[in-house]
Structure formats: structure tokens, C-alpha cells
């Protein structure tokens, strides 16, 4: 079975081909260099660049996989959530190819795709508890059986990725800030700056706006007297944010007793978080700890292909 998958929810246009459950190609055209001068993603620019880039990405993904487009059985694409202009381009590409070659198209959810990115190379043992951490979302999802998604916790304001990006911006680091903070944190002391203790709301919910504001105030104060040590700041901020994130996740582990714990979304590329999730898995004697391969952490179409494959398997079972 051949799946062609398209992901275009933000500033990446990606096409992937999956054959019988195996990823054959996963091409990603990133627009970071075009948005960097604006300090963040400009939605109108993102969709314009998608219209320019998609033919090359599509042709590369088809060529690398060695398949013929007319042999594709299903076309999956990201339908939501995301930037509306960016999503429309992906949907138009999917529906145009589908209409021309008479291939069914399947609209899918971006966050569910992120969750299933951890299922590409190794397989979940259910129930799964997934910590979903991206630029726009911070959620804890409980997946009792395949494709049965239950959001049991989320942030009431900023997402963790957004918080990393905003703090990095005030530090004068380039967009996207998350990977920059991750890199610099490795060179700094994580006890150099003290942040206010954040409270978990109703066991599994978060609020990151307090940490963001406290961080920005600390940076401005340190900058005003020339005492800012960027690497120390990154290490301390990162530890504080991730300790808080994992406090809610540990509550959920205790409550839901999952067989697999997992990470999903762009922030799952963070080194400190990846290490910590393994320590937590060991602490609670979790059967499987699955983190996505680094190439499947940030936005990519392979995760959409994997999600589509799961839906098709379920369809044929029932
Ligand atoms: O999932 P994603 O690619 O796009 C959204 O769906 O939002 O996530 C992007 C987010 C950005 O906020 C970026 O700064 C963050 O993921 N990110 C990281 C790292 N790599 C990407 N945050 C912390 N450490 C990283 N290594
Ligand atoms: Zn994403």
C-alpha cells in the first residue's frame, strides 16, 4: 500500500512517501532563513513560499521513493491546526493530485501526527501517555488504544515552544529560539538564575505566561547592569521550564499508569527533555519510552503518513 503525505501547517512544506508502513522519502523545505529577519513566522510569506516550493518538494519525494504517482493508494494531508493560508496550499495540492489521478484524500490532524511520529521506527504498546510540546501546543494526551486520543491536560496560555522562542528573542538569539537555548544551555550552569515556582493547575494543566514574564524581567534587569550570562540563563530557564513540564507529566503517569510514555512536537528535539524522559521512565518502571527520531520531531510529512497508515489499518480491521 502506498501513501503520499503532505504537511504544510506552518513554515515547512513537506512530502513523504510510505510503502507498506515503511517511510521511503521525507522531504522538508524549511523557510527559516526567509522568516529569520522578521524574528518569527510571517503567515502571508509562509503561504506564498509554499506555492513556490511545493513542486520541487513533491518531485523530490516521488523521485527519492522510486514510486510512480499514479500507483499511490491514498493521499493524506494536514487539515488542522495550523496557519490557514499554509494549510490551504497543502490541501489544494492534495486534492488536485487526488482529483487528477482519482486517488482518495484523507484530511488529518497535525497534533495526532506529532504523537504518531514516535511510532514510526518502534511501535507503541498501549495505553500510551504522550507529552505533546510544540510551538503552538502543550498537552498531555492519553491514548488508551490506537487512535483513541484524549487530551487530559494542556496549557491555559502560552505553549512551551512559544515561551522558548519569546525568551530567546529577548536574549537576542535567532528564530527559532528553542534549538538555540538548547545549544547554549549545554554550556551553562542551571542554578545560576532563580525563577518563581510555577504551580500545576488541577493536576495536569499548565500556565507558562508567568515563567515568560519573569524571564523577560530577569533578562532586562541583567542587561541593564551588563551582568547577563547568556549560557547560564539558557541552562537555568530550560531547567525551570522542563522541570515544571515534567511535574504535570509525572502526575499523569501516576494517575493513568501507561505502558508507553512518549514525547511529541518540535520541543521533543530538546536534549535535556529527551534525557529526562528516560530517567522518569526508569523511575516509574515504564515498559516503553519512545521519543521520535530527531528528523521526525519538528514538522514533517512522515508523521502524517504514519498517522494515515494507522487510520487505514483500523478501517480494514472494523
Ligand atoms: O512542532 P513544531 O515544529 O511546529 C509546531 O507545530 O509548532 O515545533 C516548533 C517549536 C518551536 O517553538 C521551536 O523553538 C521548538 O519547537 N524547538 C525546540 C527545539 N527544537 C525545536 N525547543 C527546544 N529545544 C529544541 N531542541
Ligand atoms: Zn508541529
Automatic annotation (TrEMBL):
Compartmental location: Cytoplasm
Record's GO cellular component terms: cytoplasm
Signal peptide location: none
Keywords: Acyltransferase, Cytoplasm, DNA-binding, Endonuclease, Hydrolase, Iron, Metal-binding, Nuclease, Transferase, tRNA processing
Catalytic activity: L-threonylcarbamoyladenylate + adenosine(37) in tRNA = N(6)-L-threonylcarbamoyladenosine(37) in tRNA + AMP + H(+)
GO molecular function, one term: iron ion binding
Organism, as annotated: Spiroplasma turonicum
Domain Gcp-like span(s) in chain numbering: 24-305
UniProt function note: Required for the formation of a threonylcarbamoyl group on adenosine at position 37 (t(6)A37) in tRNAs that read codons beginning with adenine. Is involved in the transfer of the threonylcarbamoyl moiety of threonylcarbamoyl-AMP (TC-AMP) to the N6 group of A37, together with TsaE and TsaB. TsaD likely plays a direct catalytic role in this reaction.
Listed NCBIfam families: gcp_kae1 (TIGR00329), T6A_TsaD_YgjD (TIGR03723)
Residue numbers binding Fe cation: 110, 114, 299
Protein name: tRNA N6-adenosine threonylcarbamoyltransferase
GO terms for biological process, alphabetical: tRNA threonylcarbamoyladenosine modification
Positions contributing to substrate binding: 132-136, 165, 178, 182, 270
Cofactor comment: Binds 1 Fe(2+) ion per subunit.
Cofactors, names only: Fe(2+)
Entry EC no(s): 2.3.1.234
Pfam families linked: TsaD
Similarity-based family: Belongs to the KAE1 / TsaD family.
